[in-house]
Amino acid sequence: MTDLDQSYHYNVIRRAIDLIDATDSDLPLDDLAGEMGMSPAHFQRLFSAWVGVSPKRYRQYLALGHARTLLAERFTTLEAAQAAGLSGSGRLHDLFLRWEAMSPGEFARRGAGLSIRYGWFDSPFGEALAMGTDRGLCGLAFASEIGREAAMTDLRARWPEADYAEDPAAIAPWVKAGFAGRGEARLHMIGPPFGIKVWEALLNIPTGHVTTYSEIARAIGHPRAVRAVGTAVGRNPVSLLIPCHRALRKSGGLGGYHWGLPVKRAMLARESARADG
């Protein structure tokens, strides 16, 4: 499957999410395919290529109540995940993930003296903006819901004093490894010390599983800082690879997602389907 195919497939999934939300009962395959302007056979092949399960099964993963099912069946305590060796390189199948954090002093300089290269890439979840230093990826945003301009403004505002240059080739190997889940991807985590702790905790959530904001707060030694944890999760600059989409509300609600809830739902649904497969 090419990168362009993946981006196209996500756009179809996004339309399917709208249809599923607007329909009280399950849409038969023929009706759902017709709404997408596709034959049932083509629609079935598209879903199989993108996620590996039938459209009927995938609709179950996209349902609004799926977050509660995940919490009931695939809730992860972060201490257990870490003890089982599920953090870091074991998180994304065959992806070897290296990361290092910027020092508090470097963060306080708001990116001054830092050279950041960026580029636009097709991803399994629509068009993505990636940014990186010579030490690894420092930003990954998804523009399908908010648009290119907003994604660029958002990431650049995090390190306003940095020097930016469009150079997708410089970071492409890390980006492609991250999207494919194979090879090596490096991360340069740029943020305040509390945020770094939260993002490190997110790396302990295995693929196909979820945890809660309160569980993250407890794991980093600040059990009462649930609101602050939620803010730090939302400020995660490297979406998908630092899996903030796997953090849910204790009530079973999806919570927020910086790049749009349809993207979060599609990420969770795709991971759940592949884990079941």
Number of strands: 8
- How many angstroms does the end-to-end distance come to? 18 Å
Structural category:
alpha/beta
Low-confidence stretches: 84-93
Strand content: 15-25%
Mean of pLDDT = 84
How do the strands of the widest beta sheet line up side by side? 4-3-2-5
Number of helices: 13
Helix content: 40-55%
Q: Specify the biggest β-sheet.
A: 4 strands, mixed
Order of helices and strands: HHHHHHEHEEEHEHEHEHHEH
Rg value: 18 Å
Mass-distribution shape: globular
Describe this structure in words.
This protein is α/β, with parallel strands linked by helices and 277 residues long. Helix content is 48%, strand content 17%. It is built from 13 helices and 8 strands. The chain has helices at residues 3-22, 29-35, 40-50, 55-62, 66-74, 78-83, 104-108, 148-158, 168-180, 193-202, 213-219, 226-234, 261-276, and strands spanning 94-101, 115-123, 126-133, 136-142, 163-166, 182-189, 211-212, 247-248. The strands form 3 sheets. It has a 4-stranded mixed sheet, with helices on both faces. It has a two-stranded parallel ribbon with strand order 1-6. Strands 7-8 form a two-stranded parallel ribbon. Strand 2 (115-123) and strand 3 (126-133) form a beta hairpin. Helix 2 (29-35) packs across helix 3, helix 4 (55-62) packs across helix 13 and helix 11 (213-219) crosses helix 12. Residues 84-93 have low confidence and may be disordered.
